[in-house]
Amino acid sequence: MYLPLVDPAEMTPELRSTWEIASPAGKRFVGVMAHAPEHAERLFRYYNAVRYSTRLGMKLSELARIAASNDTQCEV
What we know:
By secondary structure, the protein is mainly α. It is built from 4 helices and no strands. The longest helix is centred in the middle third of the chain and has 16 residues, at about 35-50.
């Protein structure tokens, strides 16, 4: 069973701003995670900092993320 997406108009301001800058797939992820807004806000603050605010750069950061997901057998 799939969860319905939370309408962006019903999201908290922080989640709405995350939704606005997300890719189409990212928008779906934010829409699902918005069912638990407190957890989603903490997750996206952490995830966006690790992904975009890094000295590694996007390419190396993505390679590290893929390596970690392969090691933990987590789907990317």
